[in-house]
Amino acid sequence: MKKIIALTLVLILAVGLFAGCKSSDKGSVYFLNFKPEADSAWQALAKTYTEKTGVTVKVVTAASGTYETTLTAEMAKKDAPTLFQCGNETALDTWKDYCLALDGTEFLNEMTTSDFNIKGEDGKTYCAGYCYEAFGIIVNTELLEKAGHSLDEIKDFASLKAVAEDITAHKDELGFAAFSSAGLDSSSSWRFSGHLANMPLYYEFRDDNVTEQPATITGKYLANYKNIWDLYMNNATCAPSELAAKTGDESRAEFANGQAVFFQNGSWEYPALSAKYSDDQMAMIPIYIGVGDEANQGLCTGTENYWCVNKDASEEDIQATLDFLYWCVTSDKGTEAMANEMGFVIPFKGALESNNLFVKQDKAMTAEGKTPVSWNFPTMPSEEWKNGVGSALTAYAA
User: Fold this and answer.
1) Rounded Cα–Cα distance for residues 299 and 287 (Å)
2) What contacts 5, CB < 8 A, 6 or more positions away?
3) 134 forms bridges with which residues in the sheet?
4) What is the model's pLDDT at position 9?
């Protein structure tokens, strides 16, 4: 009897140890996130997934403008990211040796379009474009009307300039400015060194039928870029000389607190702004720079958000990462968070219809026959190159 009891105990211990080993084989996920504005939503989603599955999901968010340098540092560590992002084909050229071919994975099979994915020269998919967004000029329609103007007036650069300068002329009596500060702190400069710079690039590439990174940027519409930048600087909540220290948070707060009518940013701002304003108090209009048929121009629509899985991670961590991605794009919690908390439109079968006003307006403009402006700033050679543009803007503003 004692032998039977002893043997039973040994078997129980063995099963327990085996179970313990199996639980450690679940692997873990380390996501190096590119988007600071989505950090809190990703942290909450990771926590939910860990509570649901027992799989550890760590989310680290790089400071704005530092993703490439952060990724370089993290990839050199023993516990490198299992999930990271490439912003364009140039980034894939840099990181391809770390990228898992995603073809045939469950989450990629859920995609409704491959238009946003990046493939290697071998035809395999290494970067999955997991969301697309829109950006333009966000408008406080209530303040605009208080200033004696309406959205219907603004159809091109000339009319935007006229409205902005009229608001500036009456700034003291109105109690607000035309534009929130075009901050050039690293948390904000990407809005202008990247997103605003997209406008002259878009028209130049359109004229020259450029479909990939060009050998040379001609600067054909550089004067138009200068004109819109001058408009932002000279009709803002602060003097141009103060822009170098202005942050993205300050710019957002100025708009949210009713200190400015216009705020250049994207659909990702909706979750925060909707806590302050109702949908009938906001709108998003195109960024006009005085080129082309502006009356029929839409918002800037595209992505620089691509998921890449680290092929050098352990087999367990790779599978854990792929499972996490599948859950994000198929589960109620994942799709709800991405649509409504992060403000994404995701090209997956389980995507929710977004409640994001700016996403709806983007779709409405396209349905009306207006031409969306494609995202061309991802063709910029590197994050450092873009930072150089930011430095030039700062010097000019000063």
Assistant:
1) 7
2) none
3) 301
4) 42
